[in-house]
Amino acid sequence: MIELRDINRVFDVGDEQVHALQDINLDIADGEYISIMGPSGSGKSTLLNMLGLLDQPTSGSYRLNDTNVTELSDREQANVRLHNIGFVFQFFHLVPRLSAANNIELPLILAGIEPRQRQVRVTRLLEQLSISDRGQHRPDQLSGGQRQRVAIARATVMQPELILADEPTGNLDRASGEDVVEVLEELNRAGMTLLVVTHDPELGRRAKRRIRMVDGCITEDIRSEPAQADSTAEPLTSEQVQAEQMRFDNLLNEEALEQLQEYQEQVPYNLRNDRS
Amino acid sequence: MRFIDSTSFCFHALSAHRSRTSLMLLAMSIGVASVVVLTSLGEGARLYVVSQFASLGSDMLIVVPGRAETTGAMPPLLGEIPRDLTLDDSLALYRERSIEYVAPLLAGTAPVSNKQLERELTVIGSTPEYFKVRKLTMLQGKFLPPGDPKRARQVCVLGEKAKNELFGSGRAIGKWVRINDRRFRVIGVLKSAGAALGAGLNDAVVIPVAAAQALFNSNSMFRVLVQAKNRQSIARAQSAMIKILRERHDGEDDVTVIQQDAMLATFDRIFSALTFTVAGIAAISLGVAGVLIMNVMLIAISQRTHEIGLLKAIGAHRRQIIQLFLLEAAMLAIFGAIIGLLIAYLMSSIIAQMMPSFPVTIPTWSPIVAVVTAIATGLVFGIMPARNAAALNPVIALGKR
């Protein structure tokens, strides 16, 4: 389904050049469930944006369903995003003034589908994600978990083959994060290819194929049956819980630092783009 | 994307930012309203002047005593008083065959009374021809009888308002009125008609010219109205009149002949130019509204970067985003224009109420021009923000927090 060959992505940062992606080769088959992990600045978000056609590689080829999508025009790429790819973001990115149902409807509107059919599809999705009673609520009247469900519904309303999720649980508490992951995994079981970028090792471990990135390179690509969580695991001792807690705190600090780095990386990139 | 969906999307976007939207609508509607109202005032002024002239008749010439030009020379020591324009002068104009009627006018004000009722009225001394030249109509009775213009018959014709003031609803024909210390018998009442350059006959009294000469103790005519046989002979009549009067005034050109048509055309041009000028000035406010639209659209785009990034991520292409934002600008312009038109029609009807004699008319072209200009400025000033929006890099647009 996806075939990446020698993908490079170089950002100009002042006089320096930063290789966000270096010689990435990756094949993804239909229906896979992949997690991408790695420290921030390792290029995993860039890879995700590239796969979603939001970013262009500096060199290399990207074939999606046997089409070299990097050569497509803006309109054709937009069409691929519309019909073949669904995005799920950490910050949901719902349009605040539109109701949940209208947010889900957006891709259908862009595709020019007639209103009656839109309504049928939206209602069905709201039912599937058990948020039927929330259809007329605006995003600010929804909980985080509900918002992410609406965002997932929007990503899947066009029946894409590929779901790209960038830290889908990063802004959710544990329970609703768990919920959201289950919804995504359900979609994967129904045949959609699922790619999750995450910092959360537990979430990463659930994927059948786990990719690790460091400094723009793929350093690990493990295929296995996911570790069965909870059911086989033994109850943790209190020291283990404490250790886990400390690790989690450190992770949070690490995350903050990484976000800062990411931000610094984006500023000059922004300037560079304005000039062109 | 279906047009109706784009429209409702933009409508939602506009109604979500109420204060911003209403400010832009206000600016746009002020622009449109000022164009329409100012042109309607200009057009009203033009129509007013045209109607004033039209009530005088267009094949008319007016002789005014005195030269309407300055030579810049020193006035002669033994002051050379311009000769009066006399009754004989005006009667002499009949020598010219292209002249149909000559109506000398001698005007003044005098107290006019019926018993205890007294009014200060305009008294006009003239001949029966005045009736024809001014195209008057009678309400009751007859106009001045034909006969020797030098005979001072003690009869008068009242304007409609003058009659009502002096006689109320009672009968006036055959009654006597006193003008200064002379008695005149009322023989007719004029039907009120459009005022002619302020000289309405509604509250005037018309008496034979010879009687007026005696009443005001003056031989000098105020005006001589001349009607040519037809429109083609106006120029000939004009030069003939000047020639006759020059002969009679010892070779001096001491009268001015005004041609009604030429004056009308000049005023028409002046007022048309004036209308376009005010329209142009008002159009500047439309331009300002356009700049405001651009400004606010730019702000809207910077506030809605997430939304734009999202639209791109879920499959909107560049053209769709440009179209959405242009449509938003166009909708603002159209709604603003509609509100502006409503305001304009409301204001012009208020003005019409306050000044009933002033024909406030909205020329058909002005709302069309105003609305088209409004939409055009909305689109032109919307292009830049829309292109900016479409050019946003989705990764950055989504990444901003």
List the helices and strands and how they pair.
The complex is a heterodimer of chains A (276) and B (401).
Chain A: E1 2-13, E2 16-28, E3 33-37, H1 44-51, E4 59-64, E5 67-68, H2 74-84, E6 85-88, H3 100-110, H4 115-128, H5 144-156, E7 162-166, H6 174-189, E8 193-197, H7 201-206, E9 209-214, E10 217-223, H8 238-275
Parallel strand pairs in A: 3-8, 3-9, 6-7, 7-8
Antiparallel strand pairs in A: 1-2, 1-4, 4-5, 9-10
Helix pairs in contact in A: 3-4, 3-5, 5-6
Chain B: H1 3-16, H2 18-54, E1 60-65, H3 87-92, E2 99-114, E3 117-126, H4 129-133, E4 138-141, E5 155-158, H5 160-167, E6 176-179, E7 182-190, E8 204-208, H6 209-216, E9 223-228, H7 234-248, E10 255-259, H8 260-303, H9 305-313, H10 318-354, H11 365-391, H12 394-399
Parallel strand pairs in B: 3-8, 5-7
Antiparallel strand pairs in B: 1-9, 1-10, 2-3, 2-6, 2-9, 4-7, 5-8, 6-7
Helix pairs in contact in B: 1-10, 2-8, 2-10, 2-11, 8-10, 8-11, 10-11
Descriptors:
heterodimer; A: 276 residues; alpha/beta; Rossmann fold; four-stranded antiparallel beta sheet; 42% helix; globular; B: 401 residues; alpha+beta; six-stranded mixed barrel
Task: Explain this structure.
The complex is a heterodimer of chains A (276) and B (401). By secondary structure, chain A is of the alpha/beta class. Chain A has one domain: Rossmann fold (3-Layer(aba) Sandwich). In chain A, 42% of the residues lie in helices and 24% in strands. Chain A contains 8 helices and 10 strands. Chain A has helices at residues 44-51, 74-84, 100-110, 115-128, 144-156, 174-189, 201-206, 238-275; strands at residues 2-13, 16-28, 33-37, 59-64, 67-68, 85-88, 162-166, 193-197, 209-214, 217-223. In chain A, the strands form 2 sheets. Chain A has a 6-stranded mixed β-sheet with strand order 6-7-8-3-9-10, with helices on both faces. Chain A has a 4-stranded antiparallel β-sheet with strand order 2-1-4-5. In chain A, strand 7 (162-166), helix 6 and strand 8 form a beta-alpha-beta unit. Chain A starts with a strand and ends with a helix. In chain A, 41% of the residues are buried. Chain B has 401 residues and is of the alpha+beta class. Chain B folds into 2 domains: 3-52 and 265-399, no CATH class; 101-227, no CATH class. In chain B, 54% of the residues lie in helices and 17% in strands. Chain B is built from 12 helices and 10 strands. Chain B has a 6-stranded mixed barrel with strand order 2-3-8-5-7-6. In chain B, helix 2 packs antiparallel against helix 11. Chain B is elongated. Chain B starts with a helix and ends with a helix.
